[in-house]
Amino acid sequence: LVLASTxxxxxxxxGRGGMLFTLLGPFAFHLPRATPPxxxxxxxxxRAAIPACxxxxxxxxxxxxxxxxxxxxxxxxxxELPPTLANGPVTATYARTSVPPAEGVPPVVLLHGFDSSCxxxxxxxxxxxxxxVEAYALDIFGWGFVETRGNVESVxxxxxxxxxxxxxxxxxxxxxxxxxxxxxxxAVALDYAAKH
Length: 196
Prior knowledge:
The chain has seven helices and six strands; from the N terminus they run βααααβββαβαβα. By secondary structure, it is of the alpha/beta class. It has a six-stranded mixed beta sheet with strand order 1-6-4-5-3-2, sandwiched between helices. Helix 5 links the parallel strand 4 (108-111) and strand 5 (135-138). Helix 2 (40-49) runs parallel beside helix 4 (65-72). The chain is globular.
């Protein structure tokens, strides 16, 4: 687990008693509960609400309620990257809590691991919502449900950094944020914090 901040907070300690505990309280050390099965009618409704960025041939294979709920809540936003990285806007895909921004409290941006997506946080997002944390589980550029065919020139380190920076500027109004990343997401968070 890696934590980074754009507003100068000390994030060197990510263990018990560190910033994660300060941010999330005792919740940080409890595993999220498994969600109970949904009735078939609700599952059908959730599948119908899943956005177009999710391959429809794979949706029928999904049965976990938390996965279906998060999939149906995925949002997409067009963001601009530098022309050296993309010839036109790219689509950012993410799931988030419905907690509104609070003055002086930075949102948490969750970055998933290698070969994964924002669904990695499908059980964490409801827990964060329950304790009042504004959070975004953002697909890393080149992974998840981000479409990179067509106008994208690169999905390398610089492109991942630029995508995260564009999301921060264009969707979070360049306000301070806290980055939390696992595996590849941790590397992206560290790289971003080092450059910005």
